[in-house]
Write a structure and sequence with these properties.
The structure is a single chain. The chain is mainly α. The chain has one domain (38-333). The chain contains twelve helices and two strands, in the order E-E-H-H-H-H-H-H-H-H-H-H-H-H. Strands 1-2 form a two-stranded antiparallel sheet. A hairpin with a 5-residue loop joins strand 1 and strand 2. Helix 3 packs across helix 8 and helix 4 runs antiparallel to helix 6. The chain is globular. The model is unreliable at 5-36 (pLDDT under 50).
Length: 334
């Protein structure tokens, strides 16, 4: 990994076994274990639970009203965090440090409200798209988010992935694009399908949220629990007017059916985001790489779409799935 110094010169900050011998500090022979393993493992774990979240989302919104699903899923998350806040207030010391929520200023609340607003827009667009598109197609298209996050990380945060890491990202994203082209065999033509437009808008907003997460956790000093707690509470508040509008029939609407997968949306996302936020707090973590690894969730969503929902074109999409695996391995080796 290379990073520009204030003097404008490239400084090698990569793994120590690639540095000249003279630049190595004296250390025991086995003291140079890979530094990136903790946040890489956390990113992959987040990817698994995120894939389960996407499958739960597809099951919950299929032939169902979207806005009530969004509202009740976030109410479940907000209820869990409200319970943890109450526990910490009544019995100080009862919760582990990882679940403690810090006191915030009004300005800090505003920062978290902004994150919730970005995510609310992303989810409204994405959930409507997932309802009308197959999850084995929608999930890969959503996975192109790291391409936009990488661009933002390079332009705003000054991150410079190494050649091997960059190659891994390119192969992964190219595979995502190839997988999305298989959708044409399902009759989905991106240039005239409005739900693809919704999906693209949700993906871009999601990429913006990923870039903002890095600022909140690595630069603004928020803990993972603090971000997740207030993010969940504010999301429930933002979706409340939409749920009320649906209930009062302010616009034409579909019927709502309660499904237990709505609770799964909440639980899987809570775990996925908590592990993801913890990875971003690592000062060595690059937001572009964390986001790329997290998009490994497409493998879980793809398998679930084919085997659980019986979605077509599994063989046509398989080469691109193998490309995703190759890209992730190269990213880790980099």
């Amino acid at each position: 990994m290379r990073r520009d110094t204030p003097a404008g010169k490239a400084e090698d900050t990569g793994p120590v076994f690639f540095r000249p011998a003279a630049a190595l500090p004296p250390a025991p022979r086995y003291a140079t274990a890979p530094r990136f393993m903790p946040w890489i493992a956390a990113s992959l774990m987040s990817a698994f639970f995120l894939g389960c979240y996407e499958l739960s989302t597809k099951h919950a919104v299929r032939d169902n009203a979207v806005l009530p699903v969004l509202f009740f899923a976030n109410v479940c998350s907000a209820t869990i965090w409200a319970g943890l806040l109450a526990t910490a207030a009544v019995a100080p010391g009862a919760l582990p440090p990882a679940l403690l929520v810090a006191s915030l200023t009004l300005h800090q609340h505003g920062l978290l409200l902004l994150k919730s607003t970005i995510v609310a827009g992303s989810w409204v667009c994405s959930y409507f798209a997932i309802k009308h598109l197959s999850v084995s197609l929608a999930s890969p298209v959503r996975a192109t988010g790291p391409m936009w996050t990488l661009l933002g990380a390079v332009l705003v945060l000054g991150e410079r992935p190494s050649l091997l890491e960059g190659l891994g990202i390119v192969i992964t994203l190219a595979s995502f694009v190839g997988l999305s082209f298989a959708g044409r065999k399902e009759g989905i033509h991106f240039h005239r399908n409005k739900w693809f437009g919704f999906l693209l808008a949700g993906t871009l907003l999601g990429a913006l949220s990923g870039l903002y997460d890095k600022y909140l956790l690595a630069r603004a000093g928020f803990s993972a629990a603090t971000v997740q707690c207030w993010f969940s509470l504010y999301l429930a508040a933002l979706f409340l007017p939409l749920a009320v509008g649906w209930k009062l029939r302010w616009w034409p609407r579909h019927l709502f059916h309660w499904r237990w997968s709505i609770l799964g949306i909440s639980l899987f996302l809570l775990v996925a985001d908590f592990v993801y936020f913890d990875a971003l707090r690592n000062p060595e973590a690059l937001v572009s790489l964390v986001s790329s690894l997290r998009r490994g969730s497409v493998l879980v969503a793809f398998a679930g779409g084919i085997f659980l929902f019986k979605e077509p074109q599994g063989r046509a999409k398989l080469p691109a799935v193998l490309g995703i695996l190759t890209g992730i391995v190269l990213t880790i080796l980099g």
